[in-house]
Amino acid sequence: MGAGFELQEKELTPQEIKNLQRKIRRLVEEKNAVILAHYYQRPEVQDIADFIGDSLELSRKAATTDADIIVFCGVRFMCETAKILSPHKKVLHPNPESGCPMADMVRADQVRDLRRKYPDAEFVAYINTTADVKAEVDICVTSANAPKIIKKLKSKKIVFLPDQALGEWISRQVPDKEFILWKGFCPPHFEFTAREVSKLKEKYPDAKVAVHPECHPKVIELADFVGSTSQIIKYATSVESRKVIVITEVGLKYTLQKINPYKEYIFPESMNYCGTVYCCTMKGITLPKVYETVKNETNEVLLPPDIMERARKPIEKMLAMS
Ligand code: SF4
User: Fold this and answer.
1) I need a surface site. Which of 11, 79, 231, 314 has the fewest CB within 10 A?
2) Is residue 68 pLDDT above 80, yes or no?
3) Are 237 and 196 in a shared domain?
4) Does 187 sit in the ligand 1 pocket, CB within 6 Å?
5) For the chain, what is the domain count?
């Protein structure tokens, strides 16, 4: 995804935002739809959601909703997961171009090659993978449940993909297993440097540091707390310290401020692969796109039935074990 990625059709006025939000909510009610949004979504998109969560929470919601239509404000692999878990529902993705660069770093044929190389290993995929890749693995995990689930797996040898940084962090917590790590990474999280975090620590010596495990191991070393987005929310909003340095996607600031506005949340300001401080594909979901999608019921997520069937097994195994 290049720097030319279209982030916002045009700047909306506060009144235009309100009007669009009202129209979207009316359509959602009329059509018995539900809007699921990831924490990294734009604030104005989060505000129209029925449910906001991280990958694990959103997968659970997608599996249990009784709505007829799921409008998924997140990146492509999340919409695919929702479709796999609710195959008879209409899942709509307001911007089909919004993929996850990390999920696209591994393909199904590469997993099949690895299977031949490591026949005795259990294959674990981060939920941030395409449906094709999920169809090839034994179990999925999220950053919230990965160590807990992998500890329970029978095999001593684990192939983990695609996020090398997350894999390294998990391997330290599960030292009795051998890990073979795919060399993928999350471009926004990997952009944060230990130097930048050290500087923030110097500037705010009384602040606690919460880090997402997709960050570089040298950044993780500087953390007081390492956890998934939802775990960071719990920690940052309840830890005694009034100031918290938060090393993850800046979209989370909106949620943190809503939950506990009495704290100061300090986010790094490094530019990433698309010249922004945020994940630009997450921000590719805009209110006008959501409106058009809900109104016309376009951008339906469709997957081959055999892929859905095979990809469902590792996801359901994860949900059962987490
Ligand atoms: S923050 Fe990273 S893992 Fe999440 S969607 Fe963006 S690139 Fe993918």
Assistant:
1) 11
2) yes
3) yes
4) yes
5) 3
